[in-house]
Design brief:
The protein is an alpha/beta fold. It has nine helices and 13 strands. It folds into two domains: 58 residues, Sun protein, domain 3 (Alpha-Beta Plaits), CATH 3.30.70; 199 residues, Vaccinia Virus protein VP39 (Rossmann fold, 3-Layer(aba) Sandwich).
């Protein structure tokens, strides 16, 4: 289904960056991915219900769906949009969460552990935070940071609605939290230009520079407060190496940080762009996925 985006609205500088990084053929694929309307996707909130109940609820509304191989809880809806889903009791009750497929990947790759102290550094609106809570069935200790007042209230609302009772909310810039804190696992879904999404017409060179600056300080902080033996997942909805691989290359200059190659069942179904760091993922925007980058690092000591 076409969104009829005028591809001439892609800023010239961004088009040049993408073509330089990926070549003409992949650039054309990326542009095609920008220009499609993706179906509505949702995640079953297993803190409140189970997939059989949700499937029955969808069937009762004559909503057809399909699954993905890499998650039992992710559903792609074939004939219903977000407006329709928001009228259903399963949405009102917090039994489902509307979430893009790409944004469901980082918590799965994090593999949150029961009993672990986990930090979500830039948590609003709460999709990944509540997904981590669900993956551990509220048996982890999650600290979720958000510094913006409006976004913090949205985060709080979603955490409460989803029944994520293991989450401690901090209205704080995670770059400024005390070094007294330390965490077993950290998710850094960093602020970025959004070059993997369809809103590319609003991207400026200044936005990219601002994003890179924030990403550098956030990942530096993450490494500092990550416990030895702990894991860090870094992700963005950007496909620009300056916001992705270059951040990871900088992190790997710390001799205590090592890449953990990302592997999971169904990974071969993802539309991937080439990444110059082996073991990391760069998802190409297409008819199902937003463009996304994900890397996982371990702190060896």
């Amino acid at each position: 289904m076409e969104q009829n985006i005028n591809m001439n609205l892609i800023p010239t500088f961004l088009a040049k960056m993408l073509e330089l990084n990926y070549g003409k053929e992949k650039y054309n694929l990326i542009c095609k991915g920008y220009n499609v309307k993706r179906p509505t996707t949702l995640r079953v909130n297993t803190l409140k219900t189970d997939k059989v109940s949700i499937e029955n609820a969808l069937k009762s509304q004559n909503i057809s769906f399909k699954k993905v191989r890499w998650s039992d809880d992710a559903y792609i809806l074939k004939n219903a949009d977000e407006q329709k889903i928001k009228t259903l009791s399963i949405y009102e009750n917090g039994e489902i969460y509307l979430q893009s497929l790409s944004s469901m990947l980082p918590p799965i790759i994090l593999q949150p552990k029961v009993g672990a102290d986990i930090l979500d550094m830039t948590a609003a609106p709460g999709g990944k935070t509540t997904q981590i809570a669900a993956l551990t069935q509220n048996r982890s200790n999650i600290t979720a940071c958000e510094m913006n007042n409006i976004r913090f209230e949205r985060l709080k609302y979603n955490v409460e609605k989803q029944g994520a009772k293991c989450v401690y909310l901090m209205k704080e810039d995670s770059r400024r939290i005390s070094d007294f804190f330390s965490f077993d696992q950290i998710l850094l879904d960093a602020p970025c230009s959004g070059s993997g999404t369809s809103n590319v017409n609003i991207i400026t060179e200044e936005l990219i520079k601002k994003s890179v600056k924030a990403q550098k300080t956030l990942i530096k902080k993450a490494i500092k407060i990550l416990k030895p033996g702990g894991s860090l997942v870094y992700s963005t909805c950007s496909i620009l190496p300056c916001e992705n691989e270059e951040m990871i290359e900088e992190a790997l200059k710390n001799p205590n940080m090592k890449i953990e190659p990302i592997e999971f069942e169904g990974i071969e179904d993802l539309p991937l762009l080439d990444s110059k760091i082996k073991g990391t993922l760069c998802v190409c925007p297409n008819d199902l996925y937003e463009g996304f980058y994900i890397a996982k690092l371990n702190k060896i000591r």
